[in-house]
């Protein structure tokens, strides 16, 4: 129930914020910017999250993924929000927000950012495939766990000393 | 039987890409996109990326006496109406020479604009862009005018 509530809450947040973006960009006749920055931000966020999650155990639920995607879009759209709310024109330093300026100067920005989104989605699918039973990430771990046996106590310093060679009696001793 | 996590992730990923792809294709095939700048990335950038002497000033009536000149370049479009808190003079021209000088002509379609350039009182051009609805985007132009020297009026 808690997971469902979290999913519903983040979904409502996504609808409200994306709806705000859609209405505002439409009012300026600038859907192009919604697509370019949205696709780039979400794609990079999904790819980065997949790389980060691949090193940690456990899966990522829907709320986490929705939150990551939303955060990616918001991060890439900060300069547009500043323009719309604080009337601050764009400046070169705004590249810190997911290359907000530079992405306008690459060839075919829409096609490029769509490819970034596709790469992000593919990274997430690959992460799920790696985490699934029989997936590449789990198989060696499971095999190792099977053969490991009970956990050992940490080695004591005394255990690390080289064992003394047993003293052998000389053949002539005691003769 | 519940679908496997991999199948579910694949289906959700395909759905997300399909939604985004349909949106992008609809935009690319729409009238607004075809009216836009051939150099698609530069449209409505809202970055004052120019700072050079404005070309053909004598042909467009000289620089503005005060504030900022909004030079609307198009064939038969209406001028934007800016609020009083922006000090601006708006002129509309369909002159092909002017359009070419401000990179607001599409040569392969023999189309002038639609777009606009912003010129300061010292005769420098600070911004130009194609814009499919210059009069409809007065709010965007107002924000840019107010950020230029002399463009900020009483609020």
Structure explained in plain terms:
The complex is a heterodimer of chains A (175) and B (155). With 175 residues, chain A is an all-alpha fold. Chain A is built from six helices and no strands. By secondary structure, chain B is of the alpha+beta class. At the A-B interface, α2 and α4 of A face α1 and α4 of B.
Task: Describe the structure concisely for a colleague.
The complex is a heterodimer of chains A (175) and B (155). By secondary structure, chain A is mainly alpha-helical. Chain A has helices spanning 2-27, 31-53, 62-86, 109-131, 139-148, 157-160.
Key terms:
heterodimer, A: 175 residues, mainly alpha, globular, B: 155 residues, alpha+beta, two-stranded antiparallel sheet, 4 helices, elongated
Blueprint of the fold:
The complex is a heterodimer of chains A (175) and B (155).
Chain A: H1 2-27, H2 31-53, H3 62-86, H4 109-131, H5 139-148, H6 157-160
Chain B: H1 5-29, H2 31-35, E1 52-53, E2 68-73, E3 88-93, H3 96-101, E4 105-106, E5 111-112, E6 115-120, E7 124-130, H4 138-146
Parallel strand pairs in B: 2-3
Antiparallel strand pairs in B: 1-7, 2-6, 4-5, 6-7
């Amino acid at each position: 129930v808690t997971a469902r509530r979290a999913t519903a809450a983040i979904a409502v947040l996504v609808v409200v914020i994306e709806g705000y973006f859609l209405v505002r960009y439409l009012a300026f006749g600038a859907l192009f910017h919604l697509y370019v920055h949205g696709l780039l931000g979400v794609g990079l966020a999904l790819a980065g999250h997949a790389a980060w999650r691949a090193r940690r155990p456990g899966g990522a639920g829907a709320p986490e993924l929705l939150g990551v995607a939303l955060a990616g879009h918001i991060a890439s759209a900060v300069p547009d929000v500043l323009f719309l709310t604080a009337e601050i024109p764009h400046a070169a330093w705004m590249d810190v927000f997911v290359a907000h300026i530079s992405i306008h100067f690459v060839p075919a920005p829409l096609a490029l950012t769509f490819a970034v989104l596709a790469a992000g989605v593919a990274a997430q699918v690959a992460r799920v495939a790696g985490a699934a039973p029989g997936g590449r990430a789990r198989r060696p771990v499971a095999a190792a766990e099977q053969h490991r046996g009970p956990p050992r106590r940490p080695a004591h310093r005394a255990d690390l000393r080289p064992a003394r060679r047993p003293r052998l009696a000389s053949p002539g001793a005691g003769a | 039987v519940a679908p496997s996590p991999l199948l579910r992730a694949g289906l959700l990923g395909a759905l997300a890409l399909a939604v985004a792809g349909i949106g992008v294709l609809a935009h690319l095939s729409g009238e607004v996109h075809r009216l836009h700048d051939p150099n698609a990335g530069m449209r409505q950038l809202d970055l004052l990326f120019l700072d050079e002497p404005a070309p053909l000033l004598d042909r467009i009536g000289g620089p503005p006496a005060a504030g900022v000149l909004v030079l609307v370049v198009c064939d038969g479009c209406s001028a934007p109406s800016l609020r009083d808190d922006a000090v601006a003079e708006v002129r509309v021209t369909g002159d092909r020479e002017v359009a070419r000088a401000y990179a607001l002509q599409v040569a392969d379609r023999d189309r002038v604009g639609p777009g606009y350039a912003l010129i300061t009182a010292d005769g420098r051009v600070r911004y130009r862009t194609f814009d499919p609805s210059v009069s409809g985007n007065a709010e965007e132009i107002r924000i840019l005018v107010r950020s230029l020297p002399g463009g900020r009026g009483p609020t």
